[in-house]
Design a protein that fits this description.
The protein has 426 residues and is mainly β. It folds into 3 domains: 92 residues, Immunoglobulin-like; 92 residues, Immunoglobulin-like, CATH 2.60.40; 184 residues, no CATH class. It contains 6 helices and 29 strands. Strands 8, 9, 10, 13, 19 and 20 form a 6-stranded antiparallel sheet that branches. Strands 11, 12, 14, 15 and 16 form a 5-stranded antiparallel sheet that branches. Strands 4-3-6-7 form a 4-stranded antiparallel sheet, with no helix packed on it. The chain is elongated and about 105 Å long. The protein starts with 11 loop residues before the first helix and ends with a strand.
């Protein structure tokens, strides 16, 4: 005998109702959250965050971190409110007091309540007066000169005022003449006006935050008139230690006795000539005379007539004196190079132009016949002739700076090589 049992058909609506009933019987809980370690701690802010690992069966509507100067902070204390839902998040903690220890925990809130992560402690940095240096001096007219500063640390509080101050007696302060150049960190340039020719001035950069004002190192300079070469080109003047230099590369085409310097455009001719010569980079005065100046071979340097009367091409010892004043060959390049990448290829390592020398990457010209007296390295390197030749040799010393160097390199080149020239006062 066959028996058949008839099983009733279960409707989809019944199954849905059953699932909803089961879900309603599941107990919801508060969220589970972990706290991220605190990092990037400064005087008044820091970063933390966390991760919601379980929403407790309910939507997480609020999450962030809470903090206090007392242990076990809650959302009744200071807190952030970041994204919602599961997953990781980052919180920016602001409004802190310098040099203070805080307790911080992540939190997450759903309809059942608020869960907290583990507690971390951290201490904010201290605040201080700004730290800065005074940049080099450059006479730009008969009655004005340029200086400036480099604010390397604002002390954890915004710098609200900066500039330079100067006088004729020493230790200049804001009770003397001063410039106002806004606020913020970094390098700034100031122009001092109302100066008197042949007067000696003392200048310092200054920076002010809410704690007070600090000053950079004091520099001393004598205001002199910009110098003209035999072609009538005018040059700014920069004081570095006890030396007075041109603030620009030489660009004369005649010696100081009025004699013309031969302009050699042919590469093969440049490579073999053993008499004075000059050229412009890529033989284009219109493109490269400003700001790079002319390229000279050592035979032009060695005449002793290249610079205006009262000035001369510096010897290797005079370059060395400047390097020592700037802290040595290893770091002097950064203080000599023009800052930024307007002319230098990046990264222009270490460049602050703290001396005011404004060295430029004018490149040079090879004397190798196989390369046809070719031009090279514009934007990458600056080659500066000294007047010092190596005895019984066809070579002489040059002082070189590069886009990838903080240092100055003392190099040896053939006398028919081409490089830039700066003049120094007798």
């Amino acid at each position: 005998m066959n028996c058949k049992i008839k099983i009733p058909r279960i409707s989809a609506l019944f199954l849905l109702s059953l699932l909803l009933l089961i879900a309603s019987c599941k107990k919801s809980t508060i969220p589970s959250v972990t706290t991220a370690p605190v990092n990037l701690i400064q005087q008044t802010n820091a970063y933390s965050g966390g991760q919601v690992t379980d929403d407790g069966g309910e939507h997480v509507s609020k999450l962030g971190v809470c903090w206090s100067t007392s242990a076990d902070p809650t959302i009744s204390d200071n807190k952030t409110q970041d994204t919602t839902g599961l997953g990781g998040f980052i919180s920016h903690i602001t409004g802190l007091t310098p040099k203070t220890m805080y307790y911080v925990k992540a939190y997450a809130t759903n309809s059942e309540g608020t869960g907290y992560g583990e507690q971390y402690t951290f201490t904010t940095d201290d605040v201080s007066l700004p730290t800065l240096t005074t940049l080099g001096l450059k006479s730009v007219s008969t009655s004005s000169a340029a200086s400036g500063g480099d604010i390397t640390n604002d002390g954890g509080i915004p710098v609200t005022a900066r500039g330079v101050c100067w006088n004729t007696t020493g230790n200049p302060a804001l009770t003397d003449s001063f410039t106002s150049d806004g606020g913020g960190r970094g390098i700034f340039t100031s122009t001092m006006t109302g100066l008197t020719l042949n007067e000696t001035y003392h200048v310092r950069a200054y920076a002010t935050n809410s704690l007070g004002t600090t000053f950079g190192d004091e520099l001393v300079f004598t205001q002199i008139e910009p110098v003209l070469d035999n072609d009538g080109n005018a040059y700014s003047i920069v004081t570095i230690g006890t030396q007075i230099w041109f603030g620009e590369n030489l660009k004369t085409t005649t010696f100081n006795d009025g004699t013309a310097i031969p302009n050699i455009t042919s590469g093969p001719d440049w490579a073999v000539i053993s008499t004075p010569a000059y050229c412009w980079y890529n033989n284009s005065a219109g493109t490269y005379k400003e700001p790079y100046g002319a390229i000279y071979n050592f035979y032009a340097v060695n005449t002793g007539k290249l610079c205006p009367t009262g000035w001369h091409v510096p010897g290797a010892e005079e370059y060395t004196t400047m390097m020592v004043y700037l802290g040595g060959l290893d770091i002097a390049g950064g203080k000599l190079k023009e800052a930024g990448t307007s002319h230098w290829i990046g990264p222009n390592l270490g460049a602050t132009n703290g001396s005011g020398f404004t060295a430029l990457p004018g490149g040079g010209r090879y004397n190798i016949q196989s390369q046809g007296g070719s031009f090279s390295d514009l934007g990458y390197f600056g080659y500066y002739w000294s007047s010092t030749a190596i005895e019984s040799s066809t070579t002489a010393y040059s002082f070189d700076m590069g886009y990838n160097l903080k240092s100055v390199v003392k190099s040896v080149y053939g006398k028919t090589d081409g490089g830039a020239v700066r003049c120094i006062k007798d």
